[in-house]
Amino acid sequence: MASNLRVEIGDTWHPKALPYLAMLMMALMLITNILNLKFIIFFGFSVISSQISYVFSLILADILAEVYGYRRVRKLLYMGLACLILYAAFVQIAVVLPPAADYPNDQAFRDIFWQAPRVVAASIAAYFATELVNSFIMSHLKVRLRAQFFYFRAVAAVGIAQVVNGAVFWTIAFAGVLSVRLILSAAAFSWVAVMVCELVVLPLTKRIAVWLKRYEGVEHYDAEPPSPETGPA
């Protein structure tokens, strides 16, 4: 915890940069949902292209939880969930509406944007649950550890959240369709890929979080941290 920052408990202060970061979070959510439509080759493996933006959204969630706390991030995620549902609903409406007589690309539009409702539900539910768990753990550990051990807190939060992501997405989307072995293999590879990316960018993540705290002038806690004498409970 930086000594030149005032300590704030709860939601008694008004962040300066949060509205802009909230818009970035919403954009990453929508971009990730769109990139779910394409698979790419990554070091010889077929992976979903949304991993690109998904990793950035997890990094941003770490920063937001560290600087602004779980309560504020949770509100952003609720709004993000609403945005994802609206996006999915309007895209599917556009898919089923009859095309204009002189519009030549209707089939291409359908081929790209039509998604099975089960996959749409899995994607939205997994994204929301993952971000919620990631932010909760990051914020909770910050209180328990008095804002120390940033690397440990970030890795632990992302690692556990990714387990939740795999369990929710693959179960909802493909349980009963793909074999358990294939589901576990795909989920495991996704977990490893995300964790490698998280570790690579972790120093940058910390630098951004530290800079943002200094910009806001606040070391925020969702709850009163344990005293230095007693340590974490």
Polypeptide structure, described:
- There is one protein chain.
- By secondary structure, this protein is mainly alpha-helical.
- The chain has one domain (6-221): Arp2/3 complex 21 kDa subunit ARPC3 (Orthogonal Bundle), CATH 1.10.1760.
- The chain is built from seven helices and four strands.
- The protein has helices at 18-35, 51-68, 70-96, 106-113, 117-144, 150-174, 180-216; strands spanning 6-9, 39-42, 45-48, 218-221.
- The strands form two sheets. Strands 1-4 form a two-stranded parallel ribbon.
- α1 (18-35) runs antiparallel to α2 and α1 crosses α3.
- The longest helix has 37 residues, at 180-216.
- The radius of gyration is 20 Å and the shape is globular.
- The protein starts with 5 loop residues before the first strand and ends in a 12-residue tail after the last strand.
- The mean pLDDT is 84.
Largest sheet composition: 2 strands, parallel
Strand numbers in spatial order across the main sheet: 1-4
N- to C-terminal distance: 18 Å
Specify the CATH architecture. Orthogonal Bundle
Mean residue pLDDT: 84
- Give the amount of beta strand, in percent: 5-15%
Number of domains: 1
Uncertain parts: none
CATH topology: Arp2/3 complex 21 kDa subunit ARPC3
- Inertia-based shape: globular
* Content-based structural category: mainly alpha
By CATH reckoning, the class would read: Mainly Alpha
**What is the ordering of alpha helices and beta strands?**
EHEEHHHHHHE
DSSP helical segment count: 7
Query: How many whole angstroms does the radius of gyration measure?
Result: 20 Å
Helix content: 55-70%
Total strand segments: 4
